[in-house]
Structure formats: structure tokens, C-alpha cells
Request: fold
Amino acid sequence: MSDMMEDEKMLWHKRLTEIIYVLYALSLLVGITGIVAIVMNYIKRQEVKGTYLESHFRWQIRTFWFALIWSFIGIITSLIIIGWFVLIATLVWFIYRIVKGWIRLREGKPMYTD
Reply:
């Protein structure tokens, strides 16, 4: 494949990764977009293997699953006061992960290097 085609393919994958970040961010308002995002992560992750975008996909996937687990724990324990703190902490952590990942993507940097 020519370098120009590789550059275009990489640009497309970077845009796709950004779209996935947007979908995760929108999931705070419209939950179904998070499901669409995680499905896209799993479908497309082989295509970004070996690039710096692979670390973003891993970051996104881990963000989704850990947020889901902690949200579930927060909901279950919301009958006692601690659950509300778990839910708030999960929300803040989720927003942090989306913002940090998106910024690093825009800078063209991988995750997990710091």
C-alpha cells in the first residue's frame, strides 16, 4: 500500500477514534451511544493494532467496562448513602477519562506513556 493510502487510512482511524470519544461523552445524556461506542471499539480494534490508536481503544474499552461495573455497584449500594458517593465518583472519573483521552488523541499521543 502506498504511503498516501496509509496516511489516509490512519487519518480515518483517528477520526473514528474521535467519534467513539464523542459517543462516550454523549452517553452521559443518551445512554445508548455508549453501547454503540463499545461495539465500534470491538469491531474496529484489529484495524488499529500496532498503531498509537490501539492504546486509545484500550483506554476507551477499559473506561466503558469499569464505569459500568462501578455504576452497577453504586446503584446497588445507593440504598445506603455510600452508593451515591460511588456514583458521583464514577461520573467524575468517566468524564476525566474521556477528556484526557480526547486531548491526547488531538495531540497525536498514545495513552499510558506518562
In short: The radius of gyration is 16 Å. Residues 3-106 form one domain. The longest helix spans residues 82-106.
